[in-house]
């Protein structure tokens, strides 16, 4: 082994170390992989599907109505839900329709479900406070969401679901 071989080996080793550091940084701070557990997001997301979570997006942009997010719940669990209510909104659910600020919110991604009426006032609010959100599962009949656990604080949001990559025949960006 001559000096040139040692130099090439060190350069290649350094490249591999840099690549590992970059990948670890991305996995810890920017993206992570998560799996759907349960049926609360049917029909949009199904139990066992694997998703890419963008953990960095809300540092530079606001949470938007319709975003599918992952959030911390009960210190040991995470939930995947859809953001429906934003700060300043009034949310009511009557006759199987969501009303945001007294206007019907069209949800063409949902089948016809029958579920209980809900009023934001039942959580003790007239409008959603700053840095709080109303989240709900797409499967309104079987979802642990803001109707039961209350409004979600922005600090509890882990990130936005950006991509479904498993199963392969259902690849999709969100």
Q: Summarize the main sheet.
A: 8 strands, antiparallel
Helicity range of the residues? 10-25%
* N-C termini distance: 52 Å
Average predicted confidence as pLDDT = 86
The strand count comes to 12
What would your notes on this structure say?
- The chain has about 170 residues and is α+β, with helices and mostly antiparallel strands.
- It has helices at about 5-30, 145-150, and strands at about 30-35, 50-55, 70-75, 75-85, 90-95, 95-100, 105, 120, 130-135, 150-155, 155-165, 170-174.
- The strands form two sheets. Strands 1, 2, 3, 4, 9, 10, 11 and 12 form an eight-stranded antiparallel beta sheet that branches. A four-stranded antiparallel beta sheet has the order 7-6-5-8, with no helix packed on it.
- Strand 5 (about 90-95) and strand 6 form a beta hairpin.
- The termini are far apart.
């Amino acid at each position: 082994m001559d000096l040139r071989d040692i130099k090439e080996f060190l350069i290649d080793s350094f490249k591999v170390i840099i690549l590992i550091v970059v990948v670890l940084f991305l996995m810890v701070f920017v993206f992570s992989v998560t799996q759907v557990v349960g049926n609360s997001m049917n029909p949009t997301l199904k139990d066992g599907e694997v998703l890419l979570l963008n953990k960095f997006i809300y540092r530079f942009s606001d949470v938007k109505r319709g975003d599918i997010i992952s959030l911390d719940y009960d210190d040991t669990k995470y939930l995947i839900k859809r953001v429906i209510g934003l700060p300043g909104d009034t949310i009511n659910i009557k006759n199987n329709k969501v009303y945001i600020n007294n206007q019907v919110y069209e949800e063409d991604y949902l089948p016809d479900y029958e579920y209980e009426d809900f009023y934001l006032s039942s959580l003790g609010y007239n409008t959603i406070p700053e840095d709080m959100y109303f989240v709900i599962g797409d499967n309104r009949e079987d979802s642990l969401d803001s109707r039961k656990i209350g409004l979600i604080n922005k600090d509890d949001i882990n990130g936005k679901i950006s991509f479904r990559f498993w199963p392969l025949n259902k690849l999709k960006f969100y």
